């Protein structure tokens, strides 16, 4: 049972490392001048890895239950306290997860900054373009002339 849990932790660690690597690619894409063509394969891989991590977490919780431990972090802490190999791998997994969390938080901030910039640019464009008769509006149509 402990060997299966250890194998799951090792696989989970590898998946978290892969996820962190994808997040670094996402960072590069988000800081590129035109990220739109770079992001779809990154999002696809992130989604795949999130699914894998969810399955591994479920497996880990099932193995912990079979060993008489609660699921999640508390159960893993108890299991790790009873086995040095599990403790070492659990510590590696936690460090990798924390690194991935930092990358993800940073990427979220990059997205927020880009969205804020885009909103300010749109606002500036809307204020800078006077509504003159004969100019097309935001809907692509020329507004009707006001009655004189």
UniProtKB/TrEMBL annotation:
UniProt keyword Ribosomal protein present: no
InterPro entries to which the protein is assigned, alphabetical: FlgN-like (IPR007809), FlgN-like_sf (IPR036679)
Gene3D superfamilies: FlgN-like
SUPFAM superfamilies given in the database record: FlgN-like
Keyword list, A-Z: Bacterial flagellum biogenesis
Family: Belongs to the FlgN family.
Function, as annotated: Required for the efficient initiation of filament assembly.
Protein name: Flagellar biosynthesis protein FlgN
């Amino acid at each position: 049972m402990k060997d299966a849990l250890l194998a799951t932790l090792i696989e989970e660690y590898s998946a978290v490392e892969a996820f962190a690597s994808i997040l670094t690619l996402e960072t590069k894409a988000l800081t590129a001048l035109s990220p739109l063509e770079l992001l779809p394969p990154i999002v696809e891989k992130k989604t795949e890895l999130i699914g894998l991590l969810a399955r591994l977490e479920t497996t880990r919780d099932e193995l912990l239950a079979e060993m008489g431990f609660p699921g999640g972090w508390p159960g893993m802490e108890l299991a790790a306290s009873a086995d040095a190999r599990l403790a070492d791998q659990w510590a590696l997994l936690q460090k990798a997860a924390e690194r991935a969390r930092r990358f993800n938080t940073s990427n979220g901030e990059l997205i927020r900054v880009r969205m804020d910039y885009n909103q300010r640019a749109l606002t500036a464009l809307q204020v800078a373009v006077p509504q003159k008769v004969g100019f097309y509006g935001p809907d692509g149509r020329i507004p009707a002339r006001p009655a004189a």
